[in-house]
Amino acid sequence: MKLEPSAENVVDHDLEPILGLVWALMYKYMKFGDDEQQLSARESLEMWVKNQTQGYDDVKVDDFTKSFHNGRAFCALIHHFNKKWLDYDQVGGDGVANIRTANSR
C-alpha cells in the first residue's frame, strides 16, 4: 500500500498518510546509536519490538514481514503494554484470527 501524503491530509487530520510520511522521513534520515554503531530507524524499531516481545511464546521477531505474518508479534506488543486489552493465552495458530483480535482493540 502506497500512501501519498498531501497538505489536505494534514488539514483533515488524516492519520495514515501523515504517519506514512513521518515514517518515510525517519527511515530515510534518522540514525540511532553512537558514532561506532549507527542503526537506521528500521533497525532501531526492530530492536525495540524484539525487546518488548521477549519472553512471549512462539514470538520471534526477525523482520517486519514474516515475523508479523501470523499476528503473534502484534498481539504480544498489545498485550505487553495493556494486558486488559488482550488475553494472550487466547492467541492461537490462526494468523487471520490473531490479526483480527489485535485490530479489534
State the gist of this model.
The chain is mainly alpha-helical and 105 residues long. Helix content is 50%, strand content 6%.
Give the CA-CA distance, first to last residue.
22 Å
Low-confidence stretches: none
N-to-C series of helices and strands: HHEEHHH
Radius of gyration: 16 Å
- The count of strands amounts to 2
Written overview of the protein:
The protein is mainly alpha-helical and 105 residues long. 50% of the residues lie in helices and 6% in strands. It is built from five helices and two strands, in the order ααββααα. It has a two-stranded antiparallel sheet with strand order 1-2. The relative contact order is 0.09.
Protein traits:
105 residues; mainly alpha; two-stranded antiparallel sheet; globular
How are the secondary structure elements laid out?
Layout: H1 7-11, H2 15-29, E1 31-33, E2 38-40, H3 41-53, H4 72-81, H5 95-103
Helix pairs in contact: 4-5
